[in-house]
Amino acid sequence: MPLNIHLLIPELVLLSFIILMVILDFFVRDKRQIGVVGVVGTVVTGLALILVPKKGSALMGLVIQDPAAVFFKFLFLIVALSILYMAILYDERIKHWKGEFYILILFAILGMMFLASAYDFITLFVSLELMAVSLYILATYMKDDTRSIEAGFKYLVTGALASGFLLYGISFLYGYTGYTGFEEVAGALGQGRGGFLTLGLFLVILGLTFKLSSIPFYIWAPDVYEGSPTPVTALIAAGSKTAGFVVAMRLLFTVLGPVKEEWIGLVVFLSGATILLGNLAAMPQKNIKRMLAYAGIGSAGYLLIGIAAASILGAEAMMFYLLTYIFAIIGSFLAIVIFSRVSGSDSIDAYIGLSRRSPLLAATLFIGLLSLAGVPPLGGFIAKFYIFAAAVKEGLIGLAVVGVVMAIVSMYYFLLVVKRMYLIEPEVVEPIELNLLTRATLYGVNIVTILLGIYPGPFTDWLMEVAKDFF
Amino acid sequence: MITLYHYLVLSCILFAIGVAGVLLRRNILIVLMSLELVFNSVNISLAAFSHFLQSMAGKVFVVFTITVAAAEVAVGLAILVVIFRQKKTVYVEDLSEMRH
Amino acid sequence: MLLDYLPVLIMAVFVAFIATMTLFVSSLVRPSRPYPKKNQPYECGVDPIGEASTGRIRIHYFVIAILFIIFDVETLYLFPWAVVLKEIGLFGYIEMFIFIFLLLIGLIYAWVKGALEWES
Predict the structure, then answer these.
(1) Chains touching A (3+ CB pairs < 8 Å)
(2) CA-to-CA distance for A464 and A389, rounded, in angstroms?
(3) Which of A129, A152, A157 sits opposite B31 (nearest CB)?
(4) Which of A61, A321, A371, C56 could make a disulfide contact with A328, Cβ separation 3.0–4.6 Å?
(5) DSSP string of A65-120?
(6) Which of A328, A363, A370, A361 is nearest to A342 (CA)?
């Protein structure tokens, strides 16, 4: 198999920019400039990604490039842009090592990009850990804030334990097939040499649930979401979860697809339980980041329905769901970051009367949250619709019913925030000033979310083609 | 005769001890040591499979696992230092500021 | 096969037995009169001074130790590379230099940021 280094040019470009940022960090005083260099690097990487071939395998089959990988890499770059922008807005709250904050964000993104292409268990594991270790450091970043330290520690311990499970599962799959490359593993599944398959599958799925933040490794999510610096929370919510689902799709559809009757039952159970837990636990929350953590757990449950469907429609629904989810999360967290600069608080009660103080900010949060809840005509509605359609088509009626009921429940806690923003008279009425760039960004994110809802046709048609790569 | 299964049982026991250590021990340092045990039990299993299947991939994997585990534990130790400086404690139960 | 290891086991038991016996017998025979001077850590006969006397070490050793672990483990990749160097040719040779270059950036980073300074 050839080396095909040219397929990795986007990643290499991003890595060069990261190294450039490390070196610039020695000289630059205002660390926000490093963030700007990071933004430029992300854009250049995106341009390189447009130009590289969209099909092929590189590094002796360790990584693969297919339209699905390219789609997810673009998603990660969008996440990178918005998180870097949030970090620049958040800059004054970070006391120490400001430059490294931007560098570590891009390291995490680099890990995610490699994850989207991983076609060997070794690549998968190393890129997963590149992302995870960067995120552990980022979660602990506010080292004067005990909540951030606590979040980082919990994240690290659960994350490392989940990695251990994943790795142990991989070792059994390796023992069963004798290979670590996905293609060889998929080929050797039929003619096994021992009964390790079920055990390996079980452990791999358990290990992956940490990244997806679904049952059983969900326990870190609320604390980490609440304690981490807000841009990092957004990165974990949007990036890390998407990366987890890319791996899950690649692994379960492409590699372990031939033995799907072994794992579908487990995934159906995890999915149903996660939807119930996430949405019910989100209701009593007082902190908006904590509430979004539980909402994220609920979303992981919906996405797992797509995995349980194990069909092209399911994969397509998951990709569309992730697309809308990322834009909803980016919009909501941009609003949260900007608002917390003014109010200094993340509690839901602080949002009282936001619509009087800044209609645009309130509208962004409104659209983001309602898209997460799946209200028409926003993108989240179409995404949930496709997920349920995929489930029904594969005969998972029960799961679809649980999903629909819980989607209605989820509107309750999202509307609690909306009620505070729009219906309760505020004590402070001082308007929140937004500069032109911020306004443009917020408008952009909102337009995308609405566009995905009212005119999803081109996206879904294209994703349908892309989804075929997984099977 | 030492067979594959001896190694697998050993790795399984070590894995169980490691997981139990992570979940039950109160001292953060011992939690981190248990994590190391988890990773190394996997290394035993990978190396054993690699030897008995006559395949090199497992040994390559072991090298990567060792590196990654070192990176992870280095970050863990750094977090431990920060925890100790801020809270003057190394016990897990003192980290419970955020509760539902 | 397992029996081949029997001598090792016997050896281990024997050594452990001798060591415990020596300690036990000498504890019966020797006088035990501890006093503060005697319990002090041994620093070449001088009164202990500085940080070591409190039983604590500087956190900085810790940072150095962490850095050491990381760089030490990275060296792991040099061994397999050295073994197959002739087979992988020029490409592998250059690739390892890229790897070492990246490590070097890490080292320079640690240096510039003051992780290797003793006084801070």
Answers:
(1) B, C
(2) 14
(3) A157
(4) A371
(5) E-HHHHHHHHHHHHHHHHHHHHHHHHGGG--S-HHHHHHHHHHHHHHHHHHHHB-B
(6) A361
Q: Name the CATH topology of B4-92.
A: Helix Hairpins (1.10.287)
Q: Which pLDDT value is given to residue A34?
A: 93
B29 CB near a chain C CB, below 8 Å?
Answer: no
- Asked whether the bond before A377 is cis by omega within 30 degrees of 0, the reply is yes
Interface membership of A447 toward C (CB under 8 Å):
no
Measured distance CA(A359)–CA(A353) in Å, rounded: 10
Across chain A, what does the average pLDDT equal? 91
CB–CB of A224/A163 below 8 Å?
no
Kindly list the residues from chain B whose CB atom is less than 8 angstroms away from the CB atom of residue A121. 61
Task: Using alpha carbons, select from A327, A345, A213, A192 the residue that is nearest to residue A275.
Answer: A213
- Chain B segment 38-67 residues within 8 A of C by beta carbon are 63, 66-67
Q: Which amino acid is at A54?
A: K
Q: CA nearest C2 in B: which residue?
A: B1
C112 and chain A in contact, CB less than 8 A? yes
Residues of A with CB under 8 A from a CB of B: 121-122, 125-126, 129, 132-133, 136-137, 140, 143-144, 146-147, 149-154, 156-157, 160-161, 163-164, 167-168, 170-172, 174-175, 178-181, 193, 222-223, 226-227, 281, 284-285
What's the length of chain A? 471
Q: The pTM is what?
A: 0.90
Contact across the interface for C76 and B78, Cβ inside 8 Å: no
Tokens 């001890």: give the residue.
B17
Predicted pLDDT of residue A425: 82
- Best mutation target among C73, C90, C111, C112 (most A Cβ atoms within 10 Å) is C112
Mean pLDDT taken over chain B:
90
What is the rounded distance in angstroms from the CA atom of residue A164 to the CA atom of residue B15?
9
> What three-state secondary structure class fits A181?
strand
Domain borders along chain B are 4-92
Tens-digit pLDDT profile for residues A406-465:
999 999 999 999 998 898 888 777 888 888 999 999 999 999 999 999 999 898 999 998
* ipTM (interface pTM): 0.96
Query: Could you tell me if C70 and C107 are in contact, meaning their C-beta atoms sit under 8 angstroms apart?
Result: no
SS3 (DSSP) at A264: helix
